[in-house]
Amino acid sequence: MNVSEELIDKALELKPQEKIFLIEALIESLDKPDKYIQEVWLKEAQVRLDAHRKGGSKGVPAEDVLGESL
């Protein structure tokens, strides 16, 4: 899909505050969570937590992961 130059020209003519509103609206439209993916990850996280609590996995200290002391 090509965005017409007319649309771009109109957007560039907006006042700064209107541009910010447009940008935020566009970003929000792209940043909607996918319920299916959230459910899959929630189940996976629970499986991993259960395995860790049962000793089935070894934890890694936060300092090793983040590279800094908390």
Quick gist of this model?
By secondary structure, the chain is mostly helical. 67% of the residues lie in helices and 0% in strands.
What does this structure look like?
Helices cover 67% and strands 0% of the residues. The chain has 70 residues and is mainly alpha-helical.
What labels would you give this structure?
70 residues, elongated
Task: Outline the fold blueprint.
Blueprint: H1 5-12, H2 16-30, H3 35-53, H4 62-66
What kind of sheet is the major sheet?
Answer: none
H/E order of the elements? Answer: HHHH
Number of domains: 1
Average pLDDT:
90
Q: Output the radius of gyration.
A: 22 Å
CA-based shape: elongated
- Tell me the total number of β-strands: 0
The tally of helices reads 4
**Fraction of residues in H or I helices:** 55-70%
